[in-house]
Amino acid sequence: VAASLSAPTLFTLAEDLSHMELEVNVDEADVGRVHEKQQARFTVDAWPGRAYPATITR
User: With a threshold of 0.70, does the pTM exceed it?
Assistant: First the structure.
């Protein structure tokens, strides 16, 4: 009987990674060069050498 029970989902990291929201810090010297709808790129430590496209929304 116990074998037919499924384990509960503990957590879900992300179901759809095509749209994410990032919170970033911009150096004070660069703030004037950052604008809404500007294209950007971000990287993650898990995949060095890969950059992902982004758009600044605010």
Answer: no
